[in-house]
Amino acid sequence: MNNPLISVIIPTHNNSSILEEAVDSIIKQTYKNLEIIIIDDNSSDNSFDVAKRLEEKDKRIKVYSLPFSDPNRVNKKGRNINAGYMARNYGFEKCNGEWITFQDDDDISLPNRIETQYNLAKKYNSNHVCINWKREYKEENKVNLDDETKLIDNIYLYKLSQKTKGLMYKLFGKLNSHIPFEIKTIRIINKAFFGSLEPYPLCASVPIVKKEVISKIKFRQLDNRVWSSFTGRGADRDFNFAVAEKYKNSICFDIPLYIWRA
Hints:
The chain is of the alpha/beta class. It has 9 helices and 9 strands. The protein has a single domain, classed as Spore Coat Polysaccharide Biosynthesis Protein SpsA, Chain A, CATH 3.90.550.10. The two termini are about 35 Å apart.
């Protein structure tokens, strides 16, 4: 098979009723050389059992339980700020693919999502490609990869990474990880830690990246995030901007290949 192996990491946490639909959307991808890694992130429902049944359905599926839990999963306001970042990092340890992508357990990928991202990566010589999302899908999505108006290029993304990076991170780098997130958001000083609050363009939750990327960049816990959202989430935003800054060859392509149902 000429196409390289692509690993798909699927963190799951208490979504047993819809997990199978999310996984099935990966099983049915037009790109077939996949390794599907389901990480049960300390679910209290039967998500692990559902995942194990799916493992019997397709030999490409491998199921693991995250062997540790995030004590800061829920913040003081009761908001889940983990969003599977620890499970994704654990999935990195299990990956064998030359490329890596993700699937949320409550969303759906259109059948040509992964194939399209891989083809875009080859066409534009990029090791980091994001596409777009939409709420509903009713007919076959037609994709024209030659439509340059849909491209958000590496130059724009690098400049945006610098625009959205707070001054304190530019001046003091990793030293900022010693400052708790609650301090960084205090009204008087927060502008020093947060540049523009623009999101990473399009759908930041399902990039495809070359495996070499994860040797340099992982998903970070809240206090270590440079591009966190102001609400305390933003693990995806932080990861994607970090890649765009480090490698300077990231692209986004404005085609809706992902169904976001959250």
